[in-house]
Every structure is written in C-alpha cells, then in structure tokens.
Amino acid sequence: MASETETATETGRDFIRDIVQADIDAGRVSEVVTRFPPEPNGYLHIGHAKSICLNFGIAQEFGGACHLRFDDTNPVKEEQEFIDAIQRDVRWLGFDWGEHLYFASDYFDRLYVWAEHLIQQGLAYVDDQSPDEMRTSRGTLTEPGANSPWRERTVAENLDLFRRMRAGEFPNGARVLRAKIDMASGNMNLRDPALYRILHAHHPRTGDAWCIYPTYDFAHGQSDAIEGISHSVCTLEFEDHKPLYDWLIDNLPVNARPRQYEFARLNMTYTLMSKRLLTGLVRNGVVNGWDDPRMPTIAGLRRRGVPPAALRDFVQRVGVARANSVVDYSFFEHCVRDALNGTALRRMAVQRPLKVVIENYPEGQTETLDAANHPDRPDLGSRQITFGRELYVEQEDFMEDPPKKFFRLSPGAEVRLRYGYFITCRSVVKDAAGAVVELRCTYDPATKGGNAPDGRKVKATLHWLAAADAIPAELRLYNQLFNRPDPGADGDALNDLNPDSLEILRGFVEPAMAAVPVEQAVQFERVGYFCKDPDSTAAALVFNRTIGLRDSYAKAK
Ligand code: ATP
Ligand code: MG
C-alpha cells in the first residue's frame, strides 16, 4: 500500500477530506453535499462499501448531507430487486440518507428538455449511423475520428427526428442523439458522445413512459447539478469524463457546478469487483445467489457473519488515495478477526465428530459445568454445558500412532477437556475396515475445572461436546472463490474458480447455539468464527464459517 494510505490511517484524513476542508475554509462551499450513485444493475460489493463510507462519512464529518441516488438510466439491466437490496445494504453498513433518496429517472423530463436545448443551440444532432459505423468512425487513441454524414443536419430536422425518437417511431439502435463537440479531440469522451438512445424497454420506475433513455454520461453530471452536489466523488476511470460533464454544464441552463474528485477503486486479491462478472457468477449458478457467503457482496459478507463495523474499519484502514493498488485479502480477514475477537461469544462445536466413551463415568448420568462466554470478558457471563459418559471430540485430535510432537489424544495420552476434566485414552474401537470409530477413555474426577490437585500437567486442551445434548448441524466452510490472487488475468475468470470453495460438514454444536440470532458470529473454540445461516430451521441448523482463526496477515507482519 502507498504511503498516502498510511497517513490516512493515522489521521483519519485523506486528500478528499482536505479538499473539502479547504473549500469550506475559503468560503467556496457553504454546505457539503455528497452522493453515492449506484446503478441498480446488481448488488453492492465491498468496493462500493469504500465509496459509501467515503461519501456518507464526509457528509457526517462536515455536517452536510449525503444523497443516495440511483443512476437508473439503463432499464435493460436494472431491477427493483437491486434497488431494494442496495438500500438494505447501505442501511446495514450503518448509513442513513434521510429524506435524500433520489433517482436519475426523476429527472427524465428535465433531461429531455435539456437535450432539446442543446439541439436548439446547434450542439446536438441525431445520427443515423449504425452502431458499427459509429464505432469505426470514432477513431482510436492515435487517430482522430471522422464526422458523421448526419452531423450537419439543421436544428429543425434534428428536433423533428428527436421528437419522433421519443414518440417511438424508430426501432432500438436506429438513431442516437449525439453531442456535437469534436471528433478529433484527444479525449475520446468528447468525440460526439451519445446523449440519448432508443430503448423500447420497461423501466422499473417510469414504466413505459419512455422509449428513449439518457446515457449515463448525460444523466450523471446533470443529476449532480440538480441536487446541488458540492463534491462529486468518484473513481479514477471517470477522470476522462470530467471535460464532458463540464462541457454539458457550460452549455445547459443549470446554475450549479459540482466539483468532481477521483480516488482509486478498491481492488483486493482473490476477489472480483465488477458487477458484470459477479452477475455472471450468479446467472451461471457458480454461487447460490448474490448473497452467497463466498461473494464479495455486502449481502454475502453479511450472511457470512462479517459485522458492519469490521467492513467500515477495513475501508477506513485501507484509506483513500489516487494511486491504484491491490489490497491483500488477508488484510480484510485481519480486520474481521479484530472486530470479532473482542466481542464474539465463545462456544463449542465439533466439525468431524469422533465418539468418546468415558468408561468410569456412570451410565445414564450427566452433570453441568460452568463455561465462560469469553476468556477476557467476565461481563459477558457464562453458560452451563453438559458433561456425561458419551462425548464427541474432533477426529483430528486423535492419532493412533502419533509423531513425537503430537500432544493430543493417542493411546495412553492424557489431555484436558475445555471447561471439564482430564481424560486418558485407554483403547480404540475400529470398524470392519479398520477405521477408528470410538475411543474408550477414563476421566479423573479430581480434575474438575481443568486442573489436577497433584499439579501434573497436560499439554493439550480439546474442545468437545456431550452426546447427550449436542445438536447436529450443517457446517458450511467457505474458502476463496478463486484459486489465484488475480482471477481472470489470463482470460476468463471462470477458469480460475476454486473447486473447493465450499465444503459442507455434518457436525455438532452446543445447545446454546439454537438460540443465537442469524448473522451474529460466535467463535467455536479452536475451530473458527461461525454464524447461523438464514437457511436454518428449528429441526436443521446451518452455520457458515465467517473466517478461520489463523491470521496469516498478522504472521506475515
Ligand atoms: P462495477 O464496475 O462493479 O459494476 P460500477 O462503478 O459500475 O461498479 P456503480 O453502481 O456505478 O458501479 O457504482 C456506484 C459508485 O461506487 C460509483 O461512484 C463508483 O465509482 C463506486 N465504486 C464502484 N466500484 C468501486 C470500487 N471497487 N472501489 C471504490 N468505489 C467503487
Ligand atoms: Mg458505473
């Protein structure tokens, strides 16, 4: 990460906040108004979280307002489901737009009038070229474009054709309205960009009122101006669009000039952040919907048990800079662990159960043990757990023929059960195929609470559950969706999918887990952070692994 980033972390400041402050100090701006302008063509992802925290954060810090504006100019790709999901996700992240909910489609009438205004000024024309012809005549970065044969139409002819476009006389793609700027401009965005295209499509909000729609570039700057946005903060790819936005504002009867500032998008290893590609994953059934916990969407992270505070913290620590960079995924995980470690309740779960029978514990008897909810937080209290003759431990905590440094269960070895007793493995029971299916152990009743009165030590403490009241549960373990840090770098990202991104285990959890709310992560001791999935029913509990316990980022530091 660039040094700019580190400065941002220390001071909570960044170059955009510095600009806002300078504008206020110099009296250029009296009220700070920002906006978050998603196109409702998919769910928000973690990159959008950066933009949300930046725009809403600036408004909060400077006592201004942040608008939530949907840039809904392309009805072919936009859906009400996405409009609803985006609002849900922004709220969940902890931000509130108050009464400032807007839609570019609210401005369609005004934008249309302004398009006619440009025509009347001789600054826009209807072009009959086919999309292919337009592409060819646009030129390249090294060659100027060529003027369209329709560029010199009269104002009257342009007005007539544009009105007939609006009236629905022409099919999709037959004509477009273009700004008349400069086909030889070094900036491709100024080579007579399209302002309106014909789209006979139903719009989620305006229904069938329109069959022509403004382009994003025509709608965006004007929407900012209409709403009195003081600082229009966007990602770097819009830097080259700024001269076009300025040209439009200069030539239209709008009396505001939002200032645009660009910052680098958030990129993260192992992660795709393009809605187009994420849409492909959903459509192709690679994942189970937009909120699949493997998705980098806000809805997916939420379902996975990532608390909103962890996302905000991550974004804040990454900082805002103009230099493009790629954040290591392990840094995101590090922030999630940081947020969960101090707050998540401790519970026990066994992922791959191995049965243990305590031979010297009376049949049919059980007892309860006190188990702290958090090792460093007495304020979080404790709960009662059951101990009995039959238990489950983790398969990987037993080895019949262990190497020297293996201190967990093996024939003759003594270990501590967390919150419980010392137990010693006496013998193993195998099935016909020779696999170990049960351990026969004894316990030392004098070691209740985990210490031996004679001072003898054990080197391992295991998590476990009592068979008497352990609840069966489906445990969904998530791994990276892609098996390389730069998915798609060599072509189609679908070729880089990790076949093991989801592993499903049938384990057990302690009874207290039945009452834990969906999405609230707990730490299954020695196993990882998990949260209850909304697929859970009273009869069948499902848990998602939010994240494992090992912190590769902290280690690398
Ligand atoms: P995508 O390429 O993922 O489809 P987009 O830019 O087309 O993203 P929009 O809905 O237009 O998606 O984005 C809304 C806002 O979020 C824009 O201001 C955009 O600049 C910002 N944004 C999108 N992706 C990122 C990112 N990775 N990092 C920071 N901001 C982002
Ligand atoms: Mg966009």
Shape: elongated
**The top level CATH class name of the largest domain:** Alpha Beta
Can you list the ligands bound to this structure?
Answer: adenosine-5'-triphosphate, magnesium ion
Unreliable spans: 1-10
Describe the structure.
With 557 residues, the chain is α/β, with parallel strands linked by helices. It has three domains: 4-268, Rossmann fold (3-Layer(aba) Sandwich), CATH 3.40.50.620; 275-344 and 473-556, Ribosomal Protein L25, Chain P, CATH 2.40.240.10; 349-470, Ribosomal Protein L25, Chain P. The chain has helices spanning 3-11, 15-25, 46-61, 80-93, 108-120, 131-137, 155-166, 216-226, 242-251, 275-283, 298-304, 308-318, 329-341, 552-556, and strands spanning 33-36, 65-70, 101-103, 124-127, 176-179, 194-198, 212-214, 231-235, 259-263, 346-347, 349-350, 353-358, 366-372, 382-388, 390-394, 414-417, 422-430, 436-443, 461-462, 465-466, 471-478, 502-509, 522-524, 528-532, 541-547. Strands 10-23-24-25-21-22-11 form a seven-stranded mixed sheet. It has a seven-stranded mixed sheet with strand order 19-16-17-18-12-15-20, with no helix packed on it. It binds adenosine-5'-triphosphate (ATP) and magnesium ion. Residues 37-39, 47-48, 50-51, 234-235, 265-266, 273-275 line the site of adenosine-5'-triphosphate. Adenosine-5'-triphosphate (ATP) binds next to helix 3 and strand 8.
